[in-house]
TrEMBL record:
<dbReference type="InterPro" id="IPR000846">
    <property type="entry name" value="DapB_N"/>
</dbReference>
<feature type="domain" description="Dihydrodipicolinate reductase N-terminal">
    <location>
        <begin position="6"/>
        <end position="109"/>
    </location>
</feature>
<dbReference type="Pfam" id="PF05173">
    <property type="entry name" value="DapB_C"/>
</dbReference>
<feature type="region of interest" description="Disordered">
    <location>
        <begin position="157"/>
        <end position="179"/>
    </location>
</feature>
<dbReference type="GO" id="GO:0008839">
    <property type="term" value="F:4-hydroxy-tetrahydrodipicolinate reductase"/>
</dbReference>
<keyword id="KW-0521">NADP</keyword>
<keyword id="KW-0520">NAD</keyword>
<comment type="similarity">
    <text>Belongs to the DapB family.</text>
</comment>
<keyword id="KW-0560">Oxidoreductase</keyword>
<feature type="binding site">
    <location>
        <position position="137"/>
    </location>
    <ligand>
        <name>(S)-2,3,4,5-tetrahydrodipicolinate</name>
    </ligand>
</feature>
<feature type="domain" description="Dihydrodipicolinate reductase C-terminal">
    <location>
        <begin position="113"/>
        <end position="246"/>
    </location>
</feature>
<dbReference type="Pfam" id="PF01113">
    <property type="entry name" value="DapB_N"/>
</dbReference>
<feature type="active site" description="Proton donor/acceptor">
    <location>
        <position position="136"/>
    </location>
</feature>
<feature type="binding site">
    <location>
        <begin position="106"/>
        <end position="109"/>
    </location>
    <ligand>
        <name>NAD(+)</name>
    </ligand>
</feature>
<keyword id="KW-0457">Lysine biosynthesis</keyword>
<dbReference type="InterPro" id="IPR023940">
    <property type="entry name" value="DHDPR_bac"/>
</dbReference>
<comment type="function">
    <text>Catalyzes the conversion of 4-hydroxy-tetrahydrodipicolinate (HTPA) to tetrahydrodipicolinate.</text>
</comment>
Length: 252
């Protein structure tokens, strides 16, 4: 019988971290060996015998947390924002010196959201226009969301080799921000509204028709199946994987 994974959760006192603590505790193939909050020493990960780390902290601390994990051979599943291309590049370089260690960084761990982004990317090459509306609670610190940026990047990457130009837009005059952020030629619009968790809509338009791909998260529990999938898979994917879609069978 395979021994349970020894998992530590960083950011355990936050809303997402608390959900992760519950999910790992309930998983029969995992043992929660440590739950760290702000100010707790990372040395506790080693003292507890953790082999896997879930980082759900804040952008200011996530890089140091993941660096510590990699340097000590701990696999990491990361849901904290702030991992731009430069940070991911530095992490990939660090991982080159630890070839048996895996790190998964994903903008979103809701399986439905990951699938919706993948479906949108597949559809984007067939429609003249693509725009994204992402909606979140007003306590979210970044805009657009990492999920929306990732979706736009996937859609843009699918359109380029297919020779699909940027969507038509005759706008000549607008207030700053009225047309949203431009991510690889795909417009992304952010809404911040009390009562929301994390809906996202991808709007695709062509002559005489529109396709809308929408995903709704009503509770942070929706992200936990993806976090658990990441924990179960990360050791078999050494190096850096960006996006949970890297662990799913989404080949054409």
């Amino acid at each position: 019988m395979t021994p349970p994974l020894k998992v530590a959760v960083l950011g355990a006192n936050g809303r997402m971290g608390a959900e992760a603590v519950k999910a790992v505790t309930a998983a029969e193939d995992m043992d929660l060996v440590a739950a760290l909050g702000r100010g707790d020493s990372l040395q506790r990960l080693l003292e507890a015998g953790a082999t896997h780390v879930v980082d759900l902290t804040v952008p200011a601390s996530t890089e140091a947390n993941v660096t510590f994990a990699v340097e000590h051979g701990l696999h990491a599943v990361v849901g904290t924002t702030g991992w731009d291309e430069a940070r991911r590049g530095a992490l990939a370089g660090l991982l080159a010196g630890h070839p048996e260690t895996g790190v998964l960084i994903a903008p979103n761990y809701a399986l439905g959201s990951v699938l919706a982004s993948a479906f949108a990317a597949k559809a984007a090459r067939y429609f003249e226009s693509v725009e994204i509306i992402e909606l979140h609670h007003p306590d979210k610190v970044d805009a657009p969301s990492g999920t929306a940026v990732r979706t736009a990047q996937l859609a843009s990457a699918a359109r380029t080799p297919a020779g699909v130009p940027a969507g038509p837009d005759a706008t000549e005059h607008s207030l700053d921000g009225a047309r949203g952020a431009d991510v690889g030629g795909v417009r992304v619009h952010s809404v911040r509204l009390r009562g929301l968790v994390a809906p996202q809509e991808v709007l695709l338009g062509g002559p005489g028709e529109q396709l809308t791909i929408r995903h709704d998260s009503y509770d942070r529990a929706s992200f936990m199946p993806g976090v658990l999938l990441g924990l179960r898979s990360v050791a078999s994917h050494p190096g850096l994987t960006y996006g949970l879609d890297g662990y799913l069978d989404l080949n054409d």
